[in-house]
Structure formats: structure tokens, C-alpha cells
Design goal:
Number of domains of chain B: 2
Strand content of chain A: 5-15%
CATH class of the domain at 69-139 and 192-395 in chain A: Alpha Beta
Helix content of chain A: 40-55%
Largest sheet of chain B: none
Strand content of chain B: under 5%
Radius of gyration of chain B: 24 Å
Distance between the termini of chain A: 63 Å
Number of strands of chain B: 0
Oligomer: heterodimer
Order of helices and strands of chain A: HHEHEHEHHHHEHHEHEHH
Helix content of chain B: 55-70%
Largest sheet of chain A: 6 strands, mixed
Shape of chain A: globular
Shape of chain B: globular
Number of strands of chain A: 6
Number of helices of chain A: 13
Distance between the termini of chain B: 16 Å
Number of helices of chain B: 21
Order of helices and strands of chain B: HHHHHHHHHHHHHHHHHHHHH
CATH topology of the domain at 69-139 and 192-395 in chain A: Rossmann fold
Chain lengths: ~400, ~525
Amino acid sequence: MTSPKQFLKVYLPVTLLAFLSVMGFNVFVDPKDIFRVAKIDNFNKEKPLAYVNNSLRVVKSLDLENGNYNTLILGTSRAFYGLDPQHLPPKADNAYNLGMTQMGMEETYKIFQFSRSRMNIEAVVIALDFELFSSGNDINEDFYKSRFSNRNIFLSNLDGILSTQYVRDALETIAFNREGKEAEDLGFYSEDPYSLRYIRYRKRFDWVTKDLFSWSKDSNYNPAALQFFEDLVIECLENDIDLYVFIAPSHVVYWEVLQKTGHFSSVEQWKRDIIQVLEKANQKYPHQPQIQLWDFSGYNSIAMEEIPEAGSDTEMQWYYEPVHYTPAVGNLIYERIFQIDLVEEPIPQDFGVTIDAENIEAHLQQIRRDRERYRDNYPEEVERVERFWKEVQAEN
Amino acid sequence: MLFNSYEFIFLFLPIVLLGFYLLGGNGYARSALVWLLAASLFFYGWWNPSYLWLLVFSIAFNYVLGLILGRETFSDRVRRLCLVVGVLVNLSLLGYYKYFNFFVGSVNDVFGTGFDLKEILLPLAISFFTFQQIAYLVDTHRGKTKERGFLKYCLFVSFFPQLIAGPIVHYNEIVPQLDDRKIFKFKAEDLAVGLTIFTLGLFKKTVFADGVSDFANPVFQAAAQGTDLTFFESWLGAFAFQLQIYFDFSAYSDMAIGSARLFGILLPLNFNSPYKSSNISQFWNRNHMTLTRFLRDYLSKPTFSVLRFLPLGDKRHSRQRQLYLSSIVIMVASGIWHGSGWTFVVWGLINGVYLALYQIWRDVRKTLGKKFARPTRAEELLGNLIMLVAAVISLVFFRAQTFKDAIAMLKPMLGSDGISLPGSLEKVVGFLGAVGIQFKGTVTPGFSSLTALVWVVGLLAIIWFAPSTQQWLQEYKPALDYDPLLSSPSPIDRLWKRVQWKPTPLWGAIVAAIAIVAVISIRPQSEFLYFQF
């Protein structure tokens, strides 16, 4: 029987039904944790993929909207991977980690404002990175699909909802739940960052170093971002929010990269600028607790952790690669700032100092001297970084 | 808006279709056309609204010039002047947006100057609507078109199925169809045929083209990053890219024809199984057919009229040599049209040389007598294989970003580091080690030799043995002026005839299954390769 109408009577309902079924399944299982229709034990309650996809801001905006936290951790992916909100002393029982990949200061400030409009924030811990204040780290695409920018989650997040990848993710989520496992929560990712899990340290250090060169050569310090930081500080002071500020640690390889790309003097200037913002704010609110600035960056003993040779199975204790520190380092930071006892071993003396307008120049001098010492003691590592820099330059 | 996006498939297309038939079916034919035009402009503006003005300006400018060119009350001189101005303005716009940085960059490289490059975003479809309207101006000057109003002219240029990446249609192919009242009345056959062609195109894109790109991209990337590729993987990568661009363009052409058919409008065929050709000349008559047609109809003649003043030997040989040279010039122009870079120029040059070599070969055979005038079946098969490999080599320049990257691909392909096969094949053909073949495996990350080989061989089998979409639907006017006889039926084609598409419930179910697989295979970030041209 040939009749176009008969053809259509089969084609249209079959395709429609199939697409609705796939979409219904994916929305219900919700592997990215963005639709939140229903969470069923042993089926889809735990979301192992919520923090490892390109909708991180959507997930975290919903967590904030639905939850009620009194303490926030702000920062980039380093905070996301390194600072466990449950170990945070100020209001530890109710903290949320808002660190996210490729954060800039403007986005950080907007997210902070969003949080304040939804809940009563009592304390904020902000992990400052040079990248937060660098050009190129603008507002990310998923921000515009999230509640942070007041979007309708359902309509803004249907990309790929009919794709096989989404179905695979949904099935993985169900399997994870059936095994009785628990997924990460409170905005913190405690595991080794997923994309590097199978690459051992030397290789990933080399890989990330090259990547950092490519990124860093096209990115510059953006002092305009300081205004957002200042606004955030003032808002905290005006509203009795305890603010803890520190400059995040990095492995020395990262500082060598910034030296090569000519950004290290900008890093020094950035530290001076941060101090200036804080001093100004402290003076403006003399009756509030004065905000201190801790600096964990530089050539300290944690930052100089040895990188195992290629093929070695030795685990690194403090770093995943040059920029991302492990939660063990996060705990050391907490110990130092909050004077608490989280780690058995003593904290190295050179890890973390408070800096201000008076001691900043001496502090910067010290870092420069430490660098010379490092270069003398690790000539092979220094040479390796220089080689990568030449390779990246040659590729362009 | 991409044809392979949810918003196009599930929102734009159904809404536009519904509006068109609601208006047209109730006697508001003109409103239906206005609706279609508004939808087409929206479709274009979705990508970058700020360039909509460029499209609108281009349409209005060419329409006004067309009015002058079509009026015989204007003197020949005025009309010729208008034509020259029109062609120049069109080419200048294209030149500015597409070639400015290429030109300035080349001048800087050659003369060591330091002229600043500008940040110019290439307006989508500019190469296509420029050529389409140049053809219109020339046709109008030649008295071949008949003015049918501004609205229809706008639609001739901007009708969304063919706006972004062809087919490059003639005025006389589209406008008479818009005049026909029958298109406004909903016909189930148009919907069934259009949906089938669109579905097949979507499947080719999301399953075949995107699937095989997983083997092309990593290999070309590795070459660009300085990895020393092996013989085997470089060839696999190059073949994978050839198949990617084949299915990508075949898919786009089907989706353009299919979506136009939903509105009862037929577009000309643009892609007709080019790798079933037995020589490069046939190949270009079956690949990107409307571009080849444009180059033949509008560029060959002026090129040849210039080249004929170039003395290339005695009178008889000179003419032949001028023809060969003209083929090279036209293919270089085609290369430049495709992209603003020297790699594209070289790609065009190589294809021009291929074409000239084929023409020389053909002419030499002709001089050998009648017996050699027609190739045998075996020669055709050999010709097909030579053409396939030659095309793969030229496409390395098409895909590579720089000459350095292209050389990094071509060196291992030509065996610079010996011939090496994957380690997994050592068990099967280990004896080849005796003749110097090594089994070193692959070095590209995330590249599985065996899977890549299965994909490449499988897709090659499809392009050789499967019928084209149009052959499959040949009883239902699958393209404008489609002539099934042009597709030179092979024994395997006769076999396929037995499974011709028909609008039956069974085919409804089969095509629905294809649609489901195609849609769930959509990758959110996958554009069509031809969108960059």
C-alpha cells in the first residue's frame, strides 16, 4: 500500500514517542543533577557526574537556591578541588564550596551577591588566584544557563538531552546508585580531577605546564577586576560577614611558567594591590574585625614537592599537577589560618605568612631569594620548564 | 541555526511549516511567502544578528541592479556598466570580509611590512549568496530572467534551506516555483519525501560524518603538534577526513533539499555520489555540482577569453594547452573560494593539475584512434581508485591549518619513516616484516587502529556500493530536474532498485528508526564543514 499519509501515520508518532521517551528518561534520571524531578534511593539519588560536566554553575546555583548555607568558599577550580567545606571551622556544619573552573572576579562577585540574596551568609573564605584577576577569565557560558543569571533551568539546559551520551550518563548514574555508592556534595570535588586520573604525575605535570604556557602567554593581569574584590570585601564588612582571605598555593613549576611568560612582576603588583584594597577597607571599618591576608604562594617547601620520575607509581601528596593542590594542602591552609589541628604532621614553617603594607616588600624579596635557591637546587626541573617554553613559542 | 540542532528540528522547522501552510492553505499566498522570508531572515540572524544588515543590503542592492539590467529602455552601455559595477561590488564585499586578512597577511609575509590585521568575523553564507547573485546579474544581463517582484527575489536569495551552504541556485530554478499556487496547498507526499531526505541527511551527518571525524581530528592535531605519525595512521587519518567531508557535504545537501521539499519546493541536486566517478572530470561534475556549474557557466568563458591571447605553441596545440591552463586557473579560483589561505590555493592548484593531466590523457587517447576513445570497465575501476587516492592527498591541504601541518601529514603518508602497520596486524601479516614493513602501532592519543580501519573501510563501501538518496527516492522527484539515468546504473544499483523507497507504513517505520538513531547521535557542538566557506 503506497500512501504518503500512511507513511506519515507511522513516521510521525514513532519518532515523537521515541524522542519523548528518551527525553523523559534523561530528565527523570537527571545525571547532571539539574532538573531535580525526583530523587529515588538506589536509583538516581546520588549524582556522580554532577560536578564533572559543563553545567557546574547550573548545579551549584540550584544547590544554593535549594539549600541554606551560612558559609561560602569562593575561588577557582583550585578551591573546588582543594578546600573541603566539611573541614572548615568557622561554621563547619553548614558550608558550601562555590569554587569553579575558570572563575573570574566579576563572576565570583555576582555569585556572592546571588548567595546573599537567597540566604543569611555569616562567613566567606576566598582563595585568591592570579587567574581570578586575569583577562580571559570572563563570565562563563554555563553561568548564563544557571539560576545565577535567573534562567529557567529546564528551557536553558536541554542541550544534548536526546543524545546517546546523556543516556549513557543516566545509565552510569543508575549503576552508581545500585552499587550503594555516595557521590560528592557540598560543591566540593575531593577526588583526583577526573580527566587526569589515569595519567601519572610526570606526564600530567609536563602536559599541564605546556597548557599553562599557552594560556598564560595570551592572558594579562586585569586590575579592573580589583573593583569586584573591593565591593565584595566592603559588602562583607558592612554586613558583619566574617571574611577570610588567602593567596592560594601553587607548585613552583607554575611560578616558573609565570616567570618565563613575564607575568611574575604582575603577580607581585597584584599582591600589593590586594593589600591596598584590604588596608583601605580595614581603615574604613575600624570597628570591624580587621581582615588579614595570608599568602601561601611562593617557593615554600610544600610548593617544591618532588615530581616522581616518568613511570613511577609514587603518589604526590600535595599536588595533582602544577596548579591544583590536594585537599591535604587545603587542610594545612585551614590549620594555619584558623589555628586548628587537622593534620598529624607539623605544618612547615615557611608555608603561609600574613602579609600587609609593611612587610610586603620584604616578603617579595624573600620569594625572589627562595626562587634563586630553587633554581640552584633543581637545575633539571628549571631546564625542563625552559624547554617547554621554547616548544610552545616554536609552535606559534 | 544548524540543521543538526534541536532548535531547528523540533521548533523552527515545524513552526515555519505550520505557519506556511496555515497561511498559504487559506488563500494568503503572499502572506505565506512573507512568513517564509521572515523565517529565513530569523534563521540567518540567529547566528549573528549584526550581519543581517549585510545580507539585506546585498539583496536590495542586487535587486535594484537587476531592475536596471532587465530594462531594455536602458542603453547597452548603461546595462554593461551596471553589470560590471554589480559584480565588482559583490566581489568587493566578499573580498573584504573573507580575504582582507589573507591579503594583508600575505603582503606582510612577502614584503616584511607590518600592516595591522583586522578582527573580521566571516559572515555566514557570504560566499554562497555572493555567487548566487552574481549569476543572477549575469543571467539578467543576458535576458534570461523575468522580474517577479522584490519579495520573491528576497526569497530566491535567502530561502533558509539553501542560504547557508548551497545549492547555489539560479533565479529561474526558484522563482517560477514560488509563482506556482500549488506549493501553498499541503501535500502529504511532499512532507513524506522531504522528511525522508532530511532524515537521511541528518543520519549521514550525525552518525557517519561526526563518527569518522573522531579519527580524522586527532591525527591532524597530532601532526600539527609535531608528533611523528606512522605511515598507517597518517593514511587512515587522511581517509577519515575525506570521508568526513564527503558525508558532511552529502548530508548538508540532503538536508537542504529535504527541508525545501517540505514546502513543496524542489532544489537542484548538489552532490551525486562523486566517488563513483571514474575520472576527475566526472568527479567535479558530481561533487558540489552547483558550484562547478557556476564556475563553468560564469568563469570558464572569461578565463578562456583571456588565456586565448597566451601563445602556447602552434595553433592547434596552443588551443588545447590554453584549455588545460584554464582548468588549472578555475580550480585555483575554486580553492580560493573555499577558504582564504594558501593551503586552499594549493588544494585548488593540485586539483587543477589533476584535471589538466586527465584532459591530456583523454586527448592523447583520442589521437590513438576509436578503440581507445572509451575506457573499458577495468580502466574505469582503476581510474576510480587513482582518483580516490589523489583526492585524499589533495584534501590534506584542505584540512591542514598550515603548510607545515600538511607536510607533517604527507611525509609519513609517503613513507618518510618507512612503512609501519599497527602491532595488532603482526599476527596476521607478520611475514611482511621480511620486506621491511614494521609493526610499530600508532602514536596518536585516543586512536584505535582497528576501529578506525573498520570505519574507513565500511564508509568507503557505502560510498561505492550504496545508492544515493536521490536514487533511492527516484520515483518521487527527489531533486529539481533529477534524471536517474545520469547516475549510470551499475549492477549493484540494479539490485538496490528492488528496495526503492515508497511511502508505505513499512518505510515509515524504517525511516523513523533512522531518524531516532540520527537524532540521538547529534553532538551539540558539531557544525557543518561548509559553514566556514
